[in-house]
Amino acid sequence: MKTRKLTNTAVLAAFSLAIFVLESHIPPLVPLYGVKLGLANVVTLYAKATLGTRCALAVLVIKIFLGNFFAGSAVSLIYSLFGGTLCFVVEMLMFRIVEKRQIWAVSVTGAIFHNIGQIIAATILMGTEKILWYLTILVPVGILTGTFTGICAMYTLKATEKIHDRR
Amino acid sequence: MSNKKLIVIFAVIFVTFAATAIILSGIQPEENIAVISVDAKQIKEVDLSFDQTFDINTEFGTNTVTVSGGEIYVSEADCPDRLCIRHGKLNNKYDSIVCLPNKLVIEYKNGSGVDAVAGR
């Protein structure tokens, strides 16, 4: 069982990393920083739902560090760390509040707080609190992208339900 | 929590923030002066009444800034994402052109009331 969990975590981490790197190569659709789908979060949510919090955290940490190593910079690593940490903490809390079927809501909240975390990082790095106004754009955007990735996670879980039942 | 409740909560948050964004985007600055900062340090004040083009050269990279017809924008940059160019003109009091890789920020002077009170 333990080996199985370890293998699954490793596979999910690889998935997450691949999605992250692929997504970073897609040119931004709108000229705004921080606006992207965040598809890798689907994998984090999936890991939490099927393997538990610790494995999800492992997937996330591997994605952040290796992802920014392959397709980022030292600066983007700091942004990822702020966004990722806040997002993860809030998502784990949301998992306790909502039912398992409402994973989309976890994703939306996560996306909002991911963006808030990145704005906090930007405020510290740029040394100007004026960037806080940017939240008025990034929060609605987070709700939209979070809904999308949340629905992705919901259907992924539904499609793989049988695999987990067998265990 | 029911799905309905969650949808209402997120819809309210969405509308509140989006409405704030729209209202803020209509506020124009009192002075037509832009401030350029690199790595959180103010390096230049630009009077937007004079058309001009100049380079901001720093250890982080180079951005070419153009002032034309009272408006300011980044016309050329060596950063990889070039989002500062795609941002276009600075268009309201709270707007800022940001180039993350080059740590460059362009905004209107006194863009936020807090700074005006705190002084520099």
Q: In total, how many beta strands of chain A?
A: 0
Major beta sheet of chain B, specifics?
4 strands, antiparallel
Structural class of chain B: alpha+beta
Write the CATH fold name of chain A: Arp2/3 complex 21 kDa subunit ARPC3
Q: Which strand-content bin applies to the residues of chain A?
A: under 5%
Query: What is the chain-wise order of helices and strands of chain B?
Result: HEEEEEHEEH
The CATH class of chain A, by name, is Mainly Alpha
The number of helices of chain A is 7
Q: So what's the overall shape of chain B? A: elongated
User: Distance N terminus to C terminus of chain B?
Assistant: 48 Å
Largest sheet of chain B, order of strands side by side? 2-1-7-6
For the biggest sheet of chain A, the summary is: none
Rounded radius of gyration of chain B (Å) = 17 Å
Helix content of chain A: over 70%
**The CATH class of chain B:** Mainly Beta
Multimeric status of the protein: heterodimer
Please report the two chains with the greatest interface, counting residues with C-beta closer than 8 angstroms to the partner's C-beta. Answer: A-B, 31 and 32 residues
Q: Just name the CATH architecture of chain B.
A: Sandwich
What can you tell me about this protein's structure?
The complex is a heterodimer of chains A (167) and B (120). Helix content of chain A is 80%, strand content 0%. Chain A contains seven helices and no strands. Chain A has helices at residues 2-25, 40-51, 53-71, 74-97, 103-126, 135-159, 161-166. In chain A, helix 1 packs antiparallel against helix 2, helix 2 (40-51) packs antiparallel against helix 3 (53-71) and helix 3 (53-71) runs antiparallel to helix 4 (74-97). The longest helix of chain A is centred in the last third of the chain and has 25 residues, at 135-159. Chain A is globular and about 50 Å long. The N and C termini of chain A lie close together (9 Å). Chain B has one domain: mini-chromosome maintenance (MCM) complex, domain 2 (Sandwich). Chain B contains three helices and seven strands, in the order αβββββαββα. The termini of chain B are far apart. Chain A binds chain B through residues 28, 31-33, 73, 75, 97-99, 102, 105, 108, 112, 122, 125-131, 133-137, 139-140, 143-144, 147, and chain B through 1, 3, 6, 10, 13-14, 17-18, 20-21, 24, 37, 39-41, 81, 83, 86-88, 94, 96, 98, 100-101, 103, 105, 107, 111-112, 114-115.
